[in-house]
C-alpha cells in the first residue's frame, strides 16, 4: 500500500496521534587552480556515512561540547532506547575459542573486517576477499602531500555509538571532538549570507509570517518532536529492534518526510527548515528513517578519530593474522551444498575456487546483487537486494595553505549550509576549542597553517547532477561557491579532490541505504535472512541491515549478528559430531 493511501486510510485515532489529520499550514506547538588536479593524487573512499549526517540543529543546552570515548560513556548509564540498542553485545564481550571451521568473508569494508576479527578470535580460520585494492570500503581517508587529511566517506562518530566506540577503545585510537553545529558558521540562502545564530533573519526572504517567522531550526525540532514523542517508549524500542507490526509505526514507515511536513508547515517554511538542516534533500525518504537519525544520532555529541577515520580500518587489519585479506579479489559466484560453500571468482593470480564451511557476504546491496548464488536467493530476498533505496553522496576536499575561515570569519569547526552548488561545506575540527556557546581557536598559530576543507558535500539529486559535470566544471563551481562564503579563499587553494560514491566499482549504486516509504516492512526482514533457510551456510552483513543506516555503527552491528549466526552453526555442527 502506497504511503498516501495508507495515511488516508489509517484509523482515525492513529492519524490523530501522529498528527496526520489534515493539512495544517502552521508550525507545531510543542577558482584559481590548474585545469586538472594531478592524476597521481588518488582520492580515498567512504560514505558519508551519511545522508542526514549534517543536521545544523545544535545539541540540547545541557549537553557538553564534546564527549570522549570513555568506558562509562560506552558501556554504562544507559539512558535511552538508543543507548541500549547501540551497546556492544554483552555475550560477545569475551572471545571464547569454540568450535572450529573455515569462513569466507566477502567484502573488506568495516563490517567484513569486524566479522573476521571476531571469528578469528574464537578460533575459526577466516579469509577476507575484497574487490578493491584496499580494505575499508566506505571509510576512506584521503591524505595530502603534507600529511593533512580529509574524509571522503564516514567523518564522525556519535557519542552513543557504543559498538563503534568499543573497538575505538579496544584498539587505543585517539579521538577528539567533532564540531557538529557552530553558531558562527554561515547559512547562504536565496542570495543572503548570515551566521547560523541569525537563521531567524532569513524568514523575510521566504515570506514567512507568524507563527513561522522564527528560527527555522526550532520549526524543524518541533515538527519532528511532535510525531516521535507521540510514540510510547516501548514503541521506540520496537522501531530499533525492527519490530514494525504496529499501526502507528507503519504510518511513519509508509509516509515520506515531505508528506508529513506538508501537513504542519507551509511549503515556504519547510523549504527554509529543510535547507538549513539539509533534510530538504531527503524529503522523499521514509519519515521513520529521518526520525531515527534525528533523535538517535544528532541529539548527541560527535567525535572523530584524530588520525583519520581509516585508523579504525588499519587497526582491524593489524589485528588479523597475515594474509587473511586478499585484495583485488572479485567474487562472482557462491555455490552451497551439504558440506559447505564454494567461493568462485578471479584474483590477481588468476581464477579463485575455494571451499569453506560458511560464508559471510559483508557487502552493500548493489555489490551483493552482482554475485550469483547457487541455489539462488529466494525471490523476496533477491527483490529486497535490488529494491532497497540507496542515497547518493559526493564530496570535494579542498586543500588550502591557510585557514581563511578561521582568520577572517572566526569559524572553528562545524558546517555552513547553502543553496549553492556545493550544498554544504564542513570545516576541520582540529583547531576548535569550546568557549561558551561558540568555538574559538585552540591554537591561534594553527589558523595560519595548511588544512583540508570539505568544500562540497552533496546528497541525492544534487550529488548525481554534480557528478555528471566535467572535473574542470566541478572545480570551478566549488571555488565560485566558496568565494561567496569566504571571499579570497581561492588564493589559498592548491589542491582539490572530487569523489562520488555512485561511481565506485563494486560499491556503485549509492553511498548508503536510506529507505523510501514502505521499504522497512517490505524489505528489511528478507534482506539479511541467512541462506539457505533450512540449513544456513551464508550470512549477510552491512549497514543496510541495521537501523543505523549509513553509519559505521550500523555496519558493525550487522557484523556481530552474522558472527552469532556462524558461531551457532559451528556449535551445532560440533555438538552433532
UniProtKB/TrEMBL annotation:
One of its GO terms (biological process) is amino acid catabolic process. One of its GO terms (molecular function) is L-amino-acid oxidase activity. Residues 110-567 form the Amine oxidase domain. InterPro entries: Amino_oxidase, FAD/NAD-bd_sf, Flavin_monoamine_oxidase. It comes from the Bacteria. This is L-amino-acid oxidase YobN. It comes from Streptomyces flaveus. The gene is yobN.
Amino acid at each position: 500500500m502506497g504511503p498516501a493511501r495508507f495515511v488516508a486510510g489509517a484509523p482515525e485515532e492513529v492519524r490523530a496521534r501522529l498528527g496526520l489529520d489534515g493539512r495544517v499550514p502552521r508550525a507545531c506547538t510543542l577558482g584559481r587552480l590548474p585545469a586538472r588536479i594531478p592524476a597521481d593524487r588518488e582520492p580515498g573512499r567512504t560514505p558519508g556515512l551519511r545522508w542526514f549526517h549534517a543536521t545544523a540543529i545544535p545539541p540540547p543546552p545541557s549537553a557538553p561540547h564534546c564527549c570522549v570515548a570513555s568506558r562509562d560513556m560506552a558501556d554504562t548509564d544507559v539512558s535511552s532506547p538508543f543507548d541500549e540498542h547501540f551497546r556492544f553485545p554483552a555475550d560477545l564481550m569475551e572471545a571464547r575459542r569454540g568450535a572450529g571451521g573455515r569462513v569466507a568473508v566477502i567484502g573488506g569494508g568495516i563490517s567484513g573486517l569486524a566479522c573476521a576479527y571476531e571469528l578469528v578470535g574464537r578460533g575459526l580460520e577466516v579469509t577476507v576477499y575484497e574487490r578493491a585494492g584496499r580494505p575499508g570500503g566506505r571509510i576512506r581517508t584521503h591524505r595530502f602531500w603534507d600529511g593533512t587529511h580529509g574524509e571522503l566517506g564516514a567523518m564522525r562518530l556519535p557519542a552513543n555509538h557504543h559498538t563503534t566506540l568499543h573497538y575505538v577503545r579496544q584498539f587505543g585510537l585517539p579521538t577528539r571532538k567533532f564540531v557538529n553545529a557552530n553558531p558562527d558558521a554561515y547559512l547562504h540562502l536565496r542570495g543572503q549570507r548570515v551566521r547560523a545564530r541569525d537563521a531567524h533573519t532569513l524568514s523575510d526572504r521566504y515570506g514567512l509570517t507568524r507563527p513561522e517567522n522564527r528560527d527555522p531550526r526550532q520549526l524543524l525540532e518541533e515538527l519532528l518532536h511532535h510525531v516521535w514523542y507521540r510514540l510510547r517508549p516501548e514503541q521506540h524500542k520496537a522501531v530499533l529492534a525492527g519490530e514494525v507490526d504496529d499501526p502507528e509505526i507503519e504510518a511513519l514507515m509508509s509516509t515520506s518526510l515531505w508528506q508529513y511536513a506538508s501537513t504542519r508547515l507551509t511549503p515556504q517554511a519547510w523549504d527554509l527548515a529543510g535547507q538549513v538542516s539539509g533534510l530538504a534533500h531527503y524529503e522523499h525518504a521514509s519519515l521513520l528513517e529521518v526520525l531515527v537519525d534525528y533523535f538517535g544520532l544528532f541529539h548527541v555529541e560527535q567525535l572523530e578519530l584524530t588520525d583519520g577515520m581509516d585508523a579504525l580500518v588499519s587497526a582491524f587489519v593489524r589485528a588479523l593474522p597475515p594474509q587473511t585479506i586478499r585484495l583485488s579479489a572479485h567474487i562472482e559466484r557462491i555455490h552451497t551444498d551439504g558440506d559447505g560453500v564454494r567461493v568462485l571468482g578471479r584474483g590477481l593470480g588468476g581464477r579463485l575456487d575455494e571451499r569453506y564451511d560458511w560464508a559471510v557476504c559483508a557487502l552493500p546491496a548493489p555489490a551483493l546483487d552482482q554475485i550469483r548464488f547457487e541455489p539462488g536467493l529466494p525471490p523476496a530476498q533477491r527483490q529486497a537486494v535490488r529494491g532497497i533505496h540507496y542515497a547518493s553522496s559526493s564530496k570535494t576536499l579542498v586543500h588550502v595553505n591557510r585557514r581563511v575561515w578561521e582568520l577572517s570569519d572566526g569559524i572553528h569547526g562545524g558546517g555552513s549550509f547553502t543553496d549553492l552548488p556545493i550544498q554544504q561545506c564542513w570545516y576541520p575540527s582540529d583547531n576548535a576549542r569550546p568557549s561558551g556557546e561558540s568555538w574559538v581557536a585552540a591554537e591561534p598559530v594553527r589558523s595560519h597553517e595548511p588544512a583540508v576543507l570539505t568544500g562540497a558535500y552533496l546528497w541525492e539529486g544534487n550529488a548525481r547532477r554534480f557528478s555528471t559535470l566535467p572535473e574542470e566544471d566541478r572545480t570551478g563551481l566549488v571555488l565560485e561557491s566558496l568565494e561567496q562564503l569566504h571571499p579570497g579563499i581561492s588564493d589559498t587553494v592548491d589542491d582539490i579532490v572530487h569523489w562520488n560514491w555512485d561511481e565506485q566499482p563494486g560499491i556503485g549504486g549509492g553511498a548508503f541505504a536510506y529507505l523510501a516509504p514502505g521499504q522497512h516492512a517490505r524489505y528489511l526482514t528478507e534482506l539479511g535472512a541467512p541462506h539457505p533457510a533450512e540449513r544456513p551456510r551464508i550470512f549477510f552483513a552491512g549497514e543496510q541491515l541495521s537501523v543505523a543506516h549509513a553509519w559505521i555503527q550500523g555496519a558493525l552491528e550487522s557484523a556481530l549478528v552474522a558472527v552469532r549466526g556462524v558461531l551457532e552453526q559451528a556449535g551445532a555442527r560440533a555438538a552433532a559430531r
